[in-house]
Design a protein that fits this description.
Mean pLDDT: 83
Strand content: 5-15%
Order of helices and strands: HEE
Structural class: alpha+beta
Radius of gyration: 18 Å
Number of strands: 2
Number of helices: 1
Shape: elongated
Length: 59
């Protein structure tokens, strides 16, 4: 295992790893793919119905 991914690594390295995972998920969803993380959830793009603003009533 690379030394920078061993237990006890610094918070900065852990943050970089999390940012990389979120970046990969975001890139896949933007491309139109669905990403499923078993036991956590799935991410995908979907169409939303137009909604009215609560104060102005504008769409």
């Amino acid at each position: 295992m690379p030394s920078r991914l061993r237990p006890g690594s610094s918070k900065a390295i852990a943050g970089e790893a999390i940012d990389a995972v979120i970046g990969a998920i975001t890139a896949a969803v933007v491309k139109g793919d669905t990403v499923q993380l078993i036991g956590f959830g799935s991410f995908s793009q979907g169409k939303r119905a137009a909604r009215n603003g609560p104060q102005s009533g504008d769409r």
